[in-house]
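notes to self, project folder thing:

trying the whole complex as one job this time. last attempt i did each chain seperately and stitching them together was a nightmare. two parts in total, labels are on each line so i dont mix them up again. if this works i'll redo the older ones the same way
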Amino acid sequence: MPPFLPVAIRIARTLGSIAVTMLGLLFVTFLIGRVMPIDPVIAVVGERATKETYQAAYEAMGLDRPVVVQFLYYIWDVVRGDFGQSLLNARPVSEDIKRVFPATLELATLGTIIGVVIGVPLGVFAAVKRGTWIDQIARFVALIGYSMPIFWLGLVGLLVFYGILGWVGGPGRVGIFYVDVVPPVTGMILVDSILDGNWDVFRDALSHIILPASLLGYYSLAYISRMTRSFMLEQMSAEYITTARVKGMSERAVIWRHAFGNIKVQLITVIALSYAGLLEGSVLTEIIFAWPGIGSYITTALLSADMNAVLGGTVMIGLVFVCLNIFSDLLYKFFDPRAK
Amino acid sequence: MSGGGAPAARTGWREWLTTDTPTSRRHARIAALYHGWLSFSSNPMAMFGLAILTFLVLVAIFAPLLAPHDPFAQDLGFRLKPLWTEGFPLGTDSLGRDILSRLIYGSRITLYIVILVAMIAPVVGLFMGTVAGYAGGWADTILMRITDIFLAFPRLVLALAFVAALGAGIENAVIAISLTAWPPYARIARAETLTIRNSDYIAAVQLQGAGALRIITKHIWPLCISSLIVRVTLDMAGIILAAAGLGFLGLGAQPPSPEWGAMISEGRKFILDYWWVATVPGLAIFTVSLAFNLLGDGLRDVLDPKDSTQ
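result (full assembly):
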């Protein structure tokens, strides 16, 4: 057997499983679209259309073809980035998604940054000082995070920090005077305002994003700190740590260079998963904060039975979710020799 | 140690329960349960969680006796009263309904969702996982691929899409949550089955002529149960939060149902002026999911010590 063959097989397998997962995702969304009790044709032509109009629309939408063929067409459409038209505004769903996705990305990214910056050190200290008050605090913080309804915490946050204290901006991405002031380059207002050098907009956008991002950050922190703690505990009880200590290495070097160095890959995996989780977890947060992201988009579409928009948004989130999952999986497999 | 079959009247139950030499299969089982209970009850946080949940069940059962008012009775002249109003300790909502009574009746809906999901998702997962693990080969590959696909899905978004397709309502919310919740159970059940499958006692019953169905249902399922129970309890908090989230979005229980998530959604419009209408039901959701988390942690230490992070 030539030496490159095992590697080639492994790559082919990984690609194969990615393809199968993606197909599965599309199949499920396709099925959901099909079992929808609302007749998509009536949604287009209206209830009082004549039989001929109905029939023409029925055929134009390809609903007379066999289901398998319809599914293949659906895949082909999605591959080309065509999710059909939104019934609400008659624009292509893909354009809408392009417009709303950066808002979600901005929120989830800032949330993850907050979660990592606080969660990782908290987890490490909780593991190193196991059983002390700092460990108890970390445990408490995570427990609350796992038990609190995020939409409720968002409401209370708005009430306290916006309604009573007035420290942060209210719902929405920017105040009404700053809407569309900076030219959209990336679609993320924080980045765009920096590129434009418009610090007023930046400050205003920051005051609006800080509360929802902290909220998401808290949830990400709860998960990341818990995982960091258990990874670190596993390392700290290993024999090489004892060896390092016996050699007289400083505690700081033992913790950060040796133990922490060994959990980095696992940690990146966890962070990628939590990032994916935030992208979807932002659905409820976006509603509370009137954040014009993909979560709000899906929910609005859902309540008005705009199925193309719902499925387009679901596929989009699903694809990002699957990609992040696969990315973290690959990272683990290729950089952690223990996984082989 | 007396070793006698029936508990000797003088040595008492404790002796009988903690004996090292059980006299019958039933005795051994009860003694094992008692040992589990002893270590569980020494965990104050877990007992606290259990106490809250017991309280919840009692409140749900005796809701008509406990509720001071009809949870659906509207009184527009008496709307949005603050906390500690005479006769309305938690105030009234925008239609003048008593919030405390609605909370009490809402506990029934929460329990209903929890029980239904707990009956559907783990059973589906157990079935898929054990069949995949025991059969191996193609069945395993296909079933686990399906599991992976569902596992790779964003759960809340998938549940949203399901509810959109099935129509809003509490049963559909339960189905949607169950459909997104079973894959981890299948993974666990499969892993357990793989370790059990090649053990000697399975070979022994195979030699005695037991078929696959009998082996799976009588010899593999009982051993998967404990790890599943732990996982279900820990997941319950997430399930309650998901159900409340669907209710909040208007896709779960429909008005005038006193579902806690829907109550938050109703109170949301008045949050800046009448904060208690939305905050009080949120506290109830938080308390119950916290209780499930505490109970799950405690159960894990007893039933599944190898996974414990303590």
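what i see at first glance: The two ends of chain A are 20 Å apart (CA to CA).
need to look closer tmrw
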